[in-house]
Amino acid sequence: MNPNQDHKPDNYDDLRLEFTPLLFSSLERYLPPNLLNVPRDTKYKYMRDILRRYSTEGERTRDQKHREYRQKIISNYQPLYRELYTLNPGTFFVQSFLKAFSASDKNRDESIRSIMSEPIPGVYTFDMLQPRFCEMLLSEVENFEKWVHETKFRIMRPNTMNKYGAVLDDFGMESMLEKLMEDFVRHISKIFFLDVGGYSLDSHHGFVVEYGMDRDVELGFHVDDSEVTLNVCLGKQFTGGELFFRGVRCEKHVNSETHSEEIYDYAHFPGRAVIHRGRHRHGARATTSGHRINLLLWCRSSVFRELRKHQKEFLSWCGECQREKQARLLQSVTAKKMELLLVDGDAAS
């Protein structure tokens, strides 16, 4: 419950691990104080043993099968643009985004805030990707889909809601997207989403989704399996497809009513990003013409998910939990007033 926020963790990328290397770096600050500065191997074994206790044999078997599935694709698929598979900020991002992150440590948070628009509380939009990068990534995805069709390879789609699209992690972009989360998304999340583990994002699910009359047309009302979601439109030409937001909710209140101040519709524009809590209820309206393709990065925090198991209310981020607290407080104040009035009445009589 009291992590050492100033601790600088070791890097575990060079080890062949059964869990993602970033998870160990993220967990280090939660180690007992006497283990913070011991050799990396000692810390690794301590954390690995705890993780093994928490993960079931079935989970580990599924993870192993997924790694084998992923390796089979990577061994056979020939990328169209290999430069997409290593994060290169200079060719990926627009100048305003790069400039915000290149500010000194002292001014970086304020610099990042300056490029953000917040049209409704908890939803932030900003220019992010260069047009050339969007074009290359679209071509890469088309090339991958062509390979899938020609080889008749059965792939897993991004999630249970989307029948079209591809998981970028599965054909070689995992390390690039992990770097994107670690160097950029996590810093944004530390500023705006501390209450849902933005400081400790340690895993991700990266994918593209495709919408159009011959693809998925729309997406129903839902929440994401993430703490923080980054959503960037890649193109192409389209009409419709707006995102609609309807307030942040915990599991208990996910189907509660929406209040007028929580309603917001967001129109996509190629290269422009929107970032929000995964528990921010949303959906996508119908794409009425053309094709809309978006890059999504679901960012997760194993630390936050563990802490959440031990909480009954989520007052810092669930809109309905906050309203219930206010209602209880108002009820308590009203009851106290009635009690005082009765006491005064008895005294007067």
Q: How many individual helices?
A: 10
Largest β-sheet summary = 8 strands, antiparallel
Which range does the strand content fall in?
A: 15-25%
Which oligomerization state do the chains in this entry correspond to? single chain
Average pLDDT confidence is 91
Distance between the termini: 54 Å
The overall strand count is: 12
Q: What is the overall silhouette? A: globular
User: Which regions have little confidence, pLDDT < 50, spanning 5+ residues?
Assistant: none
| Fraction of helical residues | 25-40%
Brief sketch in words of this structure:
This protein has 349 residues and is α+β, with helices and mostly antiparallel strands. Helices cover 39% and strands 20% of the residues. The termini are far apart.
